[in-house]
Amino acid sequence: MSLLRKRPYRTARAVLKHDNHFLLAVHSSFWARRERRWGLPGGRIEWGESPHQAVRRELREELDLQLNNMTEIGAFRYKGADHMVYGAHTDQRVTRYDKAELLDLRWFNLQELAELEQRRLLHAGYELQAIRRYLNSSP
Prior knowledge:
By secondary structure, the protein is an alpha+beta fold. 24% of the residues lie in helices and 30% in strands. Strand 1 and strand 2 form a beta hairpin. It is globular.
């Protein structure tokens, strides 16, 4: 039996909602493509860190955003690994970001997100599904 345990989630991501818009980012770690692909903010879970701790740390590092009330949306599969996604409403319309981590940041409405999905410009492919799940679970 191996002493090393496989981590159950590779990354922790966040659906961030402000009014009727959702924040997506182009991460510098997403491999180069001709067209940029948009993904949920967040990142890798460090050793010994819970997914919830990881997403809060990543939002603080990338967006200088501190959120205490985050709802667990669930896990999504991408490239053979599970990725945990949380959701939160923010009163702040985040515009500043760490340019070493992110290449771009933008707020999209649902119609624009559907168009990105249709054009295959969403990074992991589950972003719109996660956003819809968050909307269905929000009071």
